Amino acid sequence: MAKSRFAYRTIGEVEKLLGVPQHVLRYWESQISHIKPVRRGSKARLYRPEDVQLIAGINELINEKGLTIKAVQEALKSHGVKYVSDIGPVALDNGPMADISTDGDSDADDSPSGPAGQQGSESDDSNKRLARVFSRLEHLRMRIHSEINAPPAEH
User: Fold this and answer.
1) Are 104 and 92 a contacting pair, CB within 8 Å?
2) Angle 11-18/22-31 helices, nearest 10 degrees?
3) Where are the domains of the chain?
4) Where does 9-149 sit in CATH, by number?
5) Which of 26, 57, 128, 138 could be cross-linked to 87 through a Cys-Cys bond (beta carbons 3.0 to 4.6 Å apart)?
6) pLDDT tens, residue by residue, 37-52
7) pTM of the prediction?
8) Cα–Cα distance between 71 and 144 in angstroms, integer?
């Protein structure tokens, strides 16, 4: 039986869902103050759905886009938690990782049938490609910003 998407998740469940090892989750928690799992009496970590979304965004920034923890902290400071959370959305229904916002069923009924419906599909593909390009550009902008503001390296 699958958990509700509103259910709290253990560190092991978050590890399986996002593919981030438990020791890395603990480290990120120590370095990024926005990650605040609830603690049970036994001190076991329980992650709320919004924690899992944030960790998915952090994972995307660090492991997929190559940002440092310091750059992620800067992104959280300058853009906020929602921005980072939206970068790496994940399906919390124990399904595969998916961008929930682009899988919406609301557009399914609006698309015309037949050959014209194919144009709607092409438009959706174009929108997804544009969103990916925008995401990459935003990533580059954040990296440039973090490099400009980084202290000079000692030689």
Assistant:
1) no
2) 100
3) 9-149
4) 1.10.1660
5) 57
6) 998 887 889 999 999 9
7) 0.59
8) 10
